[in-house]
Each structure stands twice: as C-alpha cells, then as structure tokens.
Amino acid sequence: MKTLWRGTRLKAVEDFPILVKFVFPEDKLSIQVHPDDAYAAAHDAAAGGRGKTEMWHVVLAKPGAQVLVGLKSNVNKDEFLEAVKTHTLEKLFEAYAANPGDTFFVPAGTPHTIGPGMVICEVQEYSDLTYRIYDYGRVDGQGHPRALHLEKALGVIKFGVPYGGQTPALALPANGFKKDLLAACRYFVTERWELIGPTEFFTNSEHFNILIFLSGRGKIVAEGKAVSYHRGEVWFVPACIAPPQILPADATTFLRAYVVANMDDFKNEWLDTGLDEKSITRQIFR
Ligand SMILES: [Zn+2]
Questions:
Q1: Looking at the predicted structure, is the pLDDT value of residue 201 above 90?
Q2: 170-285: same fold as 2-166?
Q3: pLDDT attached to residue 203
C-alpha cells in the first residue's frame, strides 16, 4: 500500500522523504546551519539521523525583506568565530533581497537566516536537525537564552565553498500554461506552475506529487471525484491514481514537489526536450 501511494522510487525508504512548511518570521530567525546526512547519522542518530537540505520560495515579502544564505567565499573559521564573539556575524554572509517569486537553495552545511517581513514556502528533507550559531542575544520570558550548538555547527559548515544561494527560474516546455523549474537536487525537485485554464496534471507510478497552492482557487478532479483547493493548501497526489484535472476558478499558482530517482537521468530527460545544458545546470544541485 505504501508503495502504491508514495511510488516505487521510495520502496525501500522507511520515513516520508520530504517536508513542506510555510515560514513567516516576525523577527529574524537565529543564524543556523543543518548537517548533511553523513554528519547527522554519525552525530545525531537519536534525533533522526537525517540531514537537511532545503529550498525556499518567497511567497510574499515587504520591501527591504532579506535573507542571508552562505558565507562569503573568503571567510575562514577564525574570522567566523571572532564575528560570533563580537556580534558581527551578519557581515560575513551573502545577503539577498527577498522578493515574491524568488527562490533560494540552501544545501546542508550552508549557514543561513531569514529576516522578518516575508512568507516563504520551504521544501526540505524530512528532518529538523538545526544547529543554532547565533541568536542575536535574545532571551525567553524567564531570561534564558536558547541553546547554541556552535561546535556541531563548525563540524558541518563548509568554509570557502560558496554554493547554494539564489537560483533563477528556468522556463520548462508546457502546453497552455507556464511552468518553471526552481531547484532540483537528489532529495526533491520543485517546479512552479501558473494556470488560468483547465490543465491536465499527470501521475507516475514511480513517485508521488505534492501540490502547494500559493494563489487562486478551483477544483481538482481525480477518478470521478472533485475537491476544492484554495491558496495556502497542500495536496498530496498519490503515485497510483489516474492523472487528475486541475480546474482553476481564479488564476492559480502552485509549487509541485516530488522526488527524483537519479539526478543524471533527470538532467538527461530535460536535455532531451531541447533545453540547453548551461541553463539547466543552474537549477541542479548535487
Ligand atoms: Zn534552515
């Protein structure tokens, strides 16, 4: 049964592979980093032992909203530690303005934070392992700071290796609607679909699809049944069902997240449709 719903690609996987969240901070999140699978398995098996590579898509943002993703490439460990002590860590980061429609890829090992004034949709590995580096000196109602995990953070940060950050949307071939590839990695692929009229979705016995509705409303018709969708809802489309129809009542934008079998096959499939290698390489992370 599990295989029918999730798809044959996930036959051997015990836990569900991805997690989708909406994040809308009122204040800056702590500066943090997540481990990769290998570090998580070796050091945090009791907490799930899985790393966390994530992707953010900005849904709403006030002017001036910004995110910090990754350290500048010349920052070394000593400078980093000094900046933690002197409360000047933010200056060492690559800072990006966050505008609606922007996408950021945040691989495990990339320190980051999200500022206030935005709503982002996060697609990530199914893990909550977070190593907090700096919490802006904040304390809770009882005057206690939150725990920091500097030592583990230093074990996972990749100094001098700039990767991740903002990724451009890549237009994919689509018939009668707009489809963009936002980011692809071995844990998940995320696309953005923009529809104004009835659109046939598709299913594949190899993998499920998750649809995250960012705007619009309408109906999903599958196997003779119709359900209504609204913005802010997330729908799981099982691998085993017949392709559903999506019937927007209003212009609709959703993200589609799914799991790939193999990044080389994924890339080759798109190259076969005529996309050039240079553009697709900017969305694919290994
Ligand atoms: Zn994070």
A1: yes
A2: yes
A3: 92
HEC profile of the chain: CHHHHHCHHHCCCCCCCEEEEEECCCCCCCEEECCCHHHHHHHCHHHCCCCCCEEEEEEEECCCCEEEEEECCCCCHHHHHHHHHCCCHHHHEEEEECCCCCEEEECCCCCEEECCCEEEEEEEECCCCCEEEECCCCCCCCCCCCCCCHHHHHHHCCCCCCCCEECCCEECCCCCCEEEEEEECCCCEEEEEEECCCEECCCECCECEEEEEEECEEEEEECCEEEEEECCCEEEECCCCCCCEEEECCCEEEEEEECCCCHHHHHHHHHHCCCCHHHHHCCECC
pTM, two decimals, is: 0.94
Mention the CATH class of domain 170-285. mainly beta
Does the domain made of 2-166 have the CATH classification 2.60.120.380? no
CA 92 to ligand 1 centroid distance, Å: 18
Ligand 1 mean position to 188 CA, how many Å? Answer: 16
Query: For residues 105 and 285, is the Cβ–Cβ distance under 8 A?
Result: yes
Distance in Å, CA 65 to ligand 1 centroid: 17
Ligand 1 centroid – CA 54 distance (Å): 7
Domain ranges of the chain: 2-166, 170-285
CA 224 to ligand 1 centroid distance, Å = 40
Chain segment 243-284, per-residue pLDDT in tens: 999 999 999 999 999 998 888 888 888 888 888 888 777 778
Range of weakest confidence among 18-22, 171-175, 272-276:
272-276
